[in-house]
Design brief:
- The protein is an alpha+beta fold.
- It has a single domain, classed as RutC-like (60s Ribosomal Protein L30, Chain: A), CATH 3.30.1330.40.
- It contains three helices and six strands; from the N terminus they run E-H-E-E-H-E-H-E-E.
- Strand 4, helix 3 and strand 5 form a beta-alpha-beta unit.
- It is globular, with a radius of gyration of 14 Å.
């Protein structure tokens, strides 16, 4: 079983040495993903907008891997300020209205003070609820 490496085109991937996602068999592992718009390498100041952009970035990686948000089985949210978590809930509900994955939220510092949320997911291809 080989591995397929997925890139978003983000400069971070080349600078740091990682893939946006890795596919191994039916599993898709998506790296911690922030709200950067990778086309412009800009990020909103608003945590709600960052959350929506992070999900757009994740959805794009999953699509390249032949998967989708509906096949996510595990999600981890990391926020430097846990008090902002509730503001992210609407975007989380939208992203996972079908999948309803197992979830965890961690409060921890991120590598850039502009980042207000980072999201990591694991998907299992073929697991979407019909």
């Amino acid at each position: 079983m080989g591995r397929q490496l997925i890139s978003s085109g983000s400069t971070f991937e080349a600078q740091i040495g990682y893939s946006r996602a890795v596919v191994s068999g039916d599993w898709v592992f998506v790296s911690g993903t922030t709200g950067f718009d990778y086309r412009t390498m800009t990020i909103s100041d608003d945590v709600t907008e960052q959350t929506a952009q992070a999900f757009a970035n994740i959805a794009a990686a999953l699509a390249q891997a032949g998967s989708s948000l509906d096949e996510v089985v595990r999600v981890v949210y990391v926020l430097p300020d846990a008090e902002l978590f509730e503001r992210c809930w609407p975007a989380m509900r939208d992203a996972f209205s079908t999948a309803k994955p197992a979830a965890m939220m961690i409060q921890a510092g991120l590598s850039d003070p502009a980042m207000k949320i980072e999201i990591e997911v694991t998907a299992l291809k073929g697991s979407a609820i019909a």
